[in-house]
Design brief:
Blueprint lengths: L12 E5 L2 H6 L2 H13 L4 E5 L11 H16 L4 E7 L3 E2 L4 H8 L11 H5 L4 E2 L2 E2 L6 E2 L4 E2 L1 E8 L4 E10 L6 H18 L3 E5 L13 H11 L9 H4 L6 H27 L7 E4 L11 H4 L6 E5 L4 H22 L3 E5 L4 H13 L3 E4 L9 H9 L1 H4 L3 E2 L3 E4 L2 H6 L4 H18 L4 E4 L5 H4 L4 E5 L6 H12 L3 E5 L14 H7 L5 E15 L2 E15 L4 E6 L4 E8 L2 E6 L2 E2 L15 E3 L4 H15 L5 E3 L5 E8 L2 E8 L9 E3 L18 E6 L6 E7 L10 E5 L2 E6 L7 E8 L7
Parallel strand pairs: 1-2, 2-3, 3-11, 12-13, 13-14, 14-15, 17-18, 17-19, 19-20, 20-25
Antiparallel strand pairs: 4-10, 5-6, 7-8, 9-10, 16-29, 21-22, 21-23, 22-26, 23-24, 24-25, 27-31, 28-32, 29-30, 30-36, 32-35, 33-36, 34-35
Length: 735
């Protein structure tokens, strides 16, 4: 069957789960039936999920390889691509009765395999060495470390220790690479797969891995530093003033990326050119495992986020991660995507609507046997042109620094990334259209954005300062919030005044504590903030004060520099509140109260006052979120109703809690206006409205007022999601 797609943005990913039952009991007709179901549901690509901790299934590799071949043959019969996906190196190792119980109940364990418990705990020779020899070595003990990691949770972004209860293998161990690639080669030769997703390329051991012989030797060769012995590890680990520790973290990041690049070379030697999607759950707050997701991003054909949380209560945290994935994917010229785990039909619809509004492809898993994505896949196919390679239109862009996140402090998630994420959330819920820029961006890329916001970015290179200075001189508005530029990439200290002077700012920053209310006055608008804290005083030296404390303290200034402007706010507005993702537990899960009022009254109000030009305005309930894109000349607006998706107070929640506006019998919204600011040269041909909630298109009333397009959304039209297509006369995009 012909399932040919003209662009990668037309792919529709589904997940196929398999285990011992499929491997030992399915016949050809069963595989074909599964493929037909995928095809009928509107999917074009299947990602496989089964026998995930692949090295725990070493004894069954032949059967697994043969099954992947059967799956691929059946799915290819329906024109569906197949991507093999597995954990590259994680294993489950039982070291206690508690661990055994946890293991046997885990979704990663499949006890349908004969003698699985015994074989998964064995120590076979693979790749010329015993499998236990592959283990990542914990530098604090000198022994194989558990597959544990540090994760952030909660509205205060605190650290939580998590583990998979097993071991992780070292990517620099030559026997591991040999064993792994031998398995991959057999899959490639047997199965004719279309892609491979090598998952979990990370350094575990709670951040202490790896210090094996191979890593120690390679680290010394590349950096000139020696890793300490276990007895000296405490003074080394998380010492961010030690250049050797910083070098080790950078070495690990490079090693995980190099492993992916070695796999790429291996594939090319086989004349195999696989699709290589990659995902990461969270990027913005931390990277404690030195994951190869970013360091090998040039290899990914699809860059996506794993939305590991209850969709209803976690959407806001997912939304800001989506800004990062979209921006990173654009730099690579590939689609971004969101992976959700919906538990109900309404959460499926909500997840799909959110991902499409963020400019991403959608994929959902965990429910393929009970729910159907078909209505949304059908809708996508009907409106392919409106989802094809969208170009984001933004009001501002956030300056994201991996170096600040990774190389500044053990408390970086709380000190620096929490405020960063808080301002991103505040912008989103305040109707500001956000994008992201990176230190590696060219001046031309930076200058695409009228406003760049730099919240709590402290590790900044001299080249970055020069690029930001050029951005300002060429007409950009740079908003600096909190501490800025006080560390160089070589971990040398730079004063705050040295950093802002490099931008051309004449104002001087002193040291003076402040905690109280403050008033901002900017371009004729004013607002009183109930709580502003600062460790810095400002001497304007010709800059214009815009944020003033109770007794006249100058807490923020603006300064014109050639064609542009720098707004300097070395303070905190409010408490930098943050709405976290809520990871579901076995039963009820604790969820924190909505931060929406605080986000809007503090960071949201600040950014709204400082951003002069807003491209999109929605006159509906403030919880109707909008995004705006340019797609082949058209302007495309996505509206998503997020009303009541966050609880009013701390409570217990379930992943099956209804998202009312996405249910089949949801109450439709009343009438409301949508305003889009359009350049003068764009002449509107027509406006059409679409949604999975009604058949065909609707034509709203609209009018042009100068550069403003005013669209009247009729009442009782939709409850959850609406797509607006503004067709421009100068482009013929709809044959």
């Amino acid at each position: 069957m012909n399932n040919f797609l003209s662009t990668p943005w037309e792919e529709r990913f589904g997940w196929f789960w398999y285990g011992a039952d499929v491997i030992y009991n399915w016949e050809e007709k069963d595989f074909l039936n599964a493929a037909k179901n995928f095809y009928d549901a509107g999917n074009t690509t299947a990602i496989l999920f089964g026998t995930h901790f692949r090295f725990s299934y070493w004894a069954y590799w032949n059967e697994i390889e043969d099954t992947i071949a059967k799956i691929t043959k059946a799915f290819h019969a329906y024109g569906i691509k197949v991507i093999e996906h597995h954990s590259t190196h994680l294993t489950y190792r039982i070291d206690s009765d508690v661990n055994k119980k946890s293991y046997l109940s885990s979704s990663f364990a499949d006890n349908g395999f004969k003698d699985f418990l015994e074989t998964s705990q064995a120590n076979p020779i693979l790749g010329g060495a015993h499998m236990d020899d592959f283990g990542q070595i914990d530098g604090s003990t000198g022994k194989i470390g558990l597959s544990s990691y540090i994760h952030t949770e909660g509205k205060d972004v605190h650290w939580v220790f998590k583990h998979y209860g097993g071991n992780a293998h070292c990517f620099n161990h030559p026997s591991f690479f040999k064993a792994y690639t031998e398995h991959l080669e057999r899959i490639i030769q047997k199965a004719n797969i279309d892609g491979i997703m090598n998952d979990d390329v990370q350094w575990f051991g709670g951040g202490n891995s790896c210090s094996c012989h191979y890593c120690r030797e390679l680290f010394y060769q590349e950096t000139g530093y020696h890793l300490p012995k276990p007895e000296n590890w405490p003074s080394f680990y998380e010492n961010y003033d030690d250049p050797a520790y910083i070098a080790w973290k950078r070495f690990k990041k490079k090693s995980s990326g190099d492993f992916h690049r070695k796999l790429d070379a291996f594939y090319k030697e086989l004349d195999f050119h696989p699709l290589r999607p990659a995902y990461c759950a969270e990027v913005l707050p931390f990277d404690t495992t030195c994951y190869g997701f970013e360091s090998a991003s040039e290899l990914w054909d699809y860059i996506f986020q794993e939305c590991c949380g209850i969709i209803k209560y976690s959407y806001l945290c997912f939304a800001i991660e989506a800004v990062h994935r979209f921006a990173l994917a654009k730099r690579k010229g590939v689609p971004s995507m969101a992976l959700f785990y919906p538990a109900t039909q309404d959460s499926t619809y909500a997840a799909w609507a959110l991902s499409r509004s963020w400019g991403q492809l959608y994929t959902g898993t965990m429910h393929s046997n009970t729910l159907s994505d078909k209505p949304y896949r059908t809708f996508e196919k009907q409106h392919t042109a409106l989802y094809n390679n969208p170009e984001k239109i933004s009001d501002l862009a956030f300056y994201f620094s991996e170096m600040t996140r990774d190389y500044t402090s053990p408390n970086a998630p709380q000190k620096y990334m929490k405020p960063f994420m808080s301002y991103m959330e505040a912008a989103y819920v305040s109707g500001l259209l956000s994008d992201m820029v990176f230190p590696s961006d060219t001046i031309e890329e930076l200058c695409k954005h009228q406003v760049i916001v730099v919240p709590s970015i402290i590790m900044v290179g001299d080249d970055e300062l020069e690029n930001l200075a050029q951005y300002v001189r060429r007409g950009g508005k740079l908003i600096i919030i909190g501490e800025f530029g006080t560390k160089k990439p070589d971990i040398q200290i730079r004063t705050a005044n040295e950093a802002v002077s490099a931008l051309g700012v004449s104002a001087r920053i002193g040291k003076e504590m402040y905690n109280g209310t403050a008033q901002i006055n900017y371009h004729g608008e004013s607002y009183n903030f109930n709580k502003v804290t600062s460790n810095a005083s400002i001497t304007p030296n010709g800059a214009e004060p815009i944020l003033v404390g109770e007794n006249g303290e100058i807490l923020g200034v603006t300064e014109k520099i050639e064609q542009g402007e720098v707004i300097l706010l070395p303070c905190d507005i409010g408490d930098n509140d943050f709405q976290p993702a809520i990871w579901p537990q076995a039963k009820e899960t604790d969820a924190c109260a909505s931060m929406l009022p605080s986000l809007r009254e503090n960071g949201g109000k600040l950014l709204s006052l400082l951003v002069d030009y807003k491209h999109l305005s929605i006159g509906a309930d403030k919880d109707v979120m909008g995004t705006l894109y340019r797609v082949k000349g058209d302007y495309v607006v996505h509206l998503v109703n997020t009303k009541d998706m966050l609880p009013e107070e701390d409570c217990k929640v379930l992943k099956t809690d209804k998202i009312e506006q996405f249910t089949e019998d949801a109450e439709k919204l009343g009438a409301f206006p949508v305003t889009i600011n359009l350049p003068k040269e764009n002449e509107v041909k027509e406006v059409e409205l679409y949604s999975p909630e009604f058949v065909g298109e609707k034509t709203p009333d609209y009018k042009i007022d100068g550069e403003k397009l005013l669209i009247n959304i009729p009442e009782n039209l939709f409850a959850g999601y609406l797509l607006i297509d503004v067709v421009i006369k100068s482009d013929d995009n709809h044959d």
